[in-house]
Design brief:
Length: 94
């Protein structure tokens, strides 16, 4: 049995969620403005890092990804880029 993931709330804007090495396990998102949205997660401290995840949401939709206990290693940090739309949700880090 693996270590439980930690949920980190998203602010709804671009944000550096974590600095330093981390295991990215997934994300849960809900679109809140009745318009399409796109969110990208990077290994880094900005959107210039390595792309880990890209989630596109239809209006009023929700989505989640889960990469399991092993997750994806992010060596620099975790940065969330709200490309378009308005969302709420959280990241899952190990």
């Amino acid at each position: 049995m693996g270590t439980p993931a930690r949920a980190i709330a998203l602010s709804g804007a671009d944000q550096a969620v974590y600095t330093g090495g981390a295991i990215y396990r997934g994300i849960v998102l809900r679109e809140t403005a009745a318009a399409p949205a796109q969110v990208r997660v990077y290994d880094g401290t900005s959107a210039a890092g390595i792309l880990l995840d890209d989630v596109a949401l239809a209006a009023s939709a929700s989505a989640s990804t889960w990469y399991g206990d092993g997750g994806i290693w992010a060596s620099t940090g975790i940065f969330v880029d709200i490309v378009t739309g308005t969302v709420e949700g959280s990241l899952r880090l190990g």
